[in-house]
Fold these 3 entries.
Entry 1:
Amino acid sequence: MELLKELNNNGAFKLGQFVLKSGQNSSFYIDLRTLISSPDVLAKAAQALCDIIASKNLDFDYIVGVPYAAMPLATLVCNILKKPMLLKRKEAKSYGTKKLIEGSYEPGKKTLIIEDVVTTGSSIIETIEALRNEGLVCDQVLCVIDREQGGVHKLAAKEIQLHSITSMSAILDFLIQIDFITPQKKAQILEELRAPVAANGNRAICWSLENRKLLLSKNPLNKHIIEIMMSKQTNLCVAADLTKTSEIIELVQKIHSFICALKLHIDIIEDFSWDFITSLQTLAQEHKFVLFEDRKFADIGKTMELQLNKGIYKISSWANMVTVHSVAGDATISTFREVVENQNTAMEGCLLIAELSTEGALTRDFYPKETVEFAKKYPNFVGGFICQKRCHDDPSFLYWTPGVNQEQRGDGAGQQWRSIQQAVTQDKNDIIIVGRAITSAQDVKAEAERYATAGWSSLISRSD
Ligand code: S5P
């Protein structure tokens, strides 16, 4: 009760319209990210977990927090109980030991798993399977909140016992007691949570930017872009395919109010200089847009790392995002994690090229689908896709589309253009990438405004 009060005071329980990770719509949302911002509440939650360990007499040798949200809690519990911790990585390291589990352990010993909120239990099962593969014994899970959405049964089927401090019904009863919700509201919330999730998981997916933003706490690139899109009301990315730095700066001075991203091909610029980069960064900061270098990386990881960090352009030092071909395989994509996580980088993430806009492109058949599978492995730094049609049903990714021109259909060199309506309403992309239709226009500013207005109105009037 004391903990529920504290969580509530810290804004962990929210009423509104939300879409859950499962795709279900919900008028209630539990936001435990507030825990790490409130040291007192975090400590209380850790103590409550320790109390359960004592009262249930749980016996174990190590503690593992389900990555990432439960890791701080697990650390505090380890500290209180003086027990060693192990870390489970989300993806195996691409260098050195390539281990998934970090820390010293002996196979055959017992591990207690700690989680913050349990919904269906799938991330716990993933963690436990990795630990069991290392020969560790894992059959006890301790969580702060059980959302009562089948987690207990799903875990029991894998011989895992779930213990929780509190549950969805206990939270809703507490909120009734403090007059935050009515009993009718509780019934409505439970009903919403009972709504089945379809096999493809997207029955109730809500594609509004408001809701998508909620899914993005772990993806800094998309969070940044969605914030810009919402505040400037634009889903336009201009492709500044010009060869002189002065032309690009002049273009940006005209169009900055209408764009969420400026896309460059840095290697076509004839008079590249660091002053140019500084000017662009100042403009991007002042007028809120991201710098997008469309380098289309496609090599072994080590070469991509050099291409990102070195050479004349030192792309990672100024570009917030880049494009990557999936053709070299998913292990090479993990290169980007280290670059994005480096403190001295401007890079927030990358887009994978699922489908090209050109006539006869080989990015068809299995290619977009396999590209999506790669992206799913790196949700923290893959922001989405370059595609022609929305290539996946996950709203936490953004779908960027080139090949947009309101008047013309092709450039005679393989490029295929279609209208904004086709690109956003029919093909369900989020961000339009427009080059020559704007950069070659008589009145560049008016044309950028026309594309931004039409793009945004197509996006916000789309129902899915
Ligand atoms: O499939 C693609 C992928 C990209 S990123 N087709 C593309 O045209 N692009 C890029 O989008 C291309 O490199 C260019 O910078 C821009 C399209 O320019 P436009 O002048 O044809 O609109």
Entry 2:
Amino acid sequence: MVEIKTEDEVRSMREAGRVVAQALAAARATAAVGVSLRDLDAAAAAVIREAGATPAFLDYHPAWAPSPFPGVVCASVNDAIVHGIPTDHRLADGDLVSLDCGAYLDGWCGDSAISFVVGEADPEDLSLIADTEAALARGIEAARVGNRIGDIADAIGAFARSRGRGVLADHGGHGIGRAMHEDPDVPNEGRRGRGMKLRAGLVLALEPMLIGGGTDDYRHDPDGWTLRTLDGTRAAHSEHTIAITPDGPLILTAA
Ligand code: MG
Ligand code: MG
């Protein structure tokens, strides 16, 4: 069922989104060569705890997963696309890191993801990250009253394909509110003019996950959580929680 939020509820979700933005910023500021993924997780966890919020990912256990998620952030490095576990793995020079974080504040959820490079970056990785952020911006731009879910999906996917990037067919964005995952699904590729009509008060998490080399193929790690590109190509992930308002899209997980 699709939940439409009141203006007051959107304001509360903005506060939850701000905590997530601050948690991601703290994790990113901690990232450096030799620092472990667990250290990034701890930095995000501290921000969430100090804000009086609750991590949304920790102990999250969807039906398809073999075990509850053990971290506050998903940390996906290089060929890991999403759902990476924040282990003791230490970052190396040139690693492409994607961090995804969710938190509940006063019963409302925020969900956001960023990608960046640690140390000296390969220009191709920076280009992939820029394309992923631009795909997200295209999706947000299309999130307007009167448009449809398919307009968002097409805006993200068509841009990604125009840049020669791969797109995961069966992973994408989602409605969000009192639960992290609500209806509707928001695919990262689709057809304009199709799907549910967008209304003011609809809150969505949009999240392009792009694969550098144009292949769409991925596999699950033996850990049961991490999605990796099949051929080892690097991937990037960018996500914001946004509200559709009469005045246009409002980013709830901005700093
Ligand atoms: Mg997320
Ligand atoms: Mg999400």
Entry 3:
Amino acid sequence: MTSRQTLRLAPDAAGLAEAGRLLRAGGLVAFPTETVYGLGADATDGRAVAGIYEAKGRPSFNPLIAHVATREAALALGRFDAAAEALAEAFWPGPLTLVVPLAAGSPISELARAGLDTVGLRVPDHPVAHALLEAAGRPIAGPSANRSGHVSPTDADHVLADLDGRIDAVLDAGPTLVGVESTIVACLDGGPVLLRPGGVSRAALAKVLGRPPGTAAKAARAEAAPLAPGMLASHYAPRAHVRLDAVSVAPGEALLAFGAAMPPHDGPVLNLSAAGDLAEAAANLFGHLRALDAAGATGIAVMPVPHDGLGEAIRDRLARAAAPRD
Ligand code: TXA
Ligand code: MG
């Protein structure tokens, strides 16, 4: 990853305009919410989202929360059932993330969703976050703004301690209020399920829902391994058998290439990045897997992807796609 100078921006008109400009240009801007600081990038731009994983040094692709300024904007990005609507009405803006099926035509990038056909949506309750989201004019993907494995940051100094030189800017609005992350509730088939406890209590959810939310069998592991096969009913895995580090292509297989040199093959082929660029490869990963799967191949031969930088996360996700599943 390229090192860059990280600006500390004041949350005034000039700072917000600069932060919005950086986000629209595909940059990385850490921003305050009422829970913790988030590391923001344009959620509709896979290359920008790849930068988040790169800056955090995250060894795998977790789905990211898409932050928007208003409830109306969130409602347009997902499909809300009655429970999701009630929770949105009661707790937005606020420390609640709703995981709902993706709306048709929703512009959230595949990488921000880690290939899932669901999306985590949140309307933060913080004036600076609100102003930034208005300035950016698009959904902003944002995990907590810490290096992978570190605790979530609750002020701009924590953010810089982890990410100085790795992101474009941090909007400094002082310490956050809640200090723990948002509560995550999935509203998919089968009723609302609490995936992560957080700023909105289980009792408060129960009051709005009229009954306690369900608990995911492995909810304790939701943060660590949301993509483990079986963890979520909606997890994305190709139907085709995925074969890693392939140096040749077998009959019936499609080819998922990386780099300029490709083995001979006359079936379906897509290249993660002909230039060998790992950020481009990350942005293309889920879409290409999906497209090759749809092409009807029995298997997908994946050329070697390097281990360094984003390559670790790409390889992790490919290994999960290749693993036996239930
Ligand atoms: O308070 C918060 O939620 C903070 C602020 C910045 O908004 N964000 C945050 O993001 O804690 P992160 O990435 O550290 O945790 C988000 C969690 C991840 O564990 C991810 O697996 C889950 O949300 N998540 C997001 N979208 C999901 C989806 N479509 N399905 C299942 N889980 C999802
Ligand atoms: Mg986190």
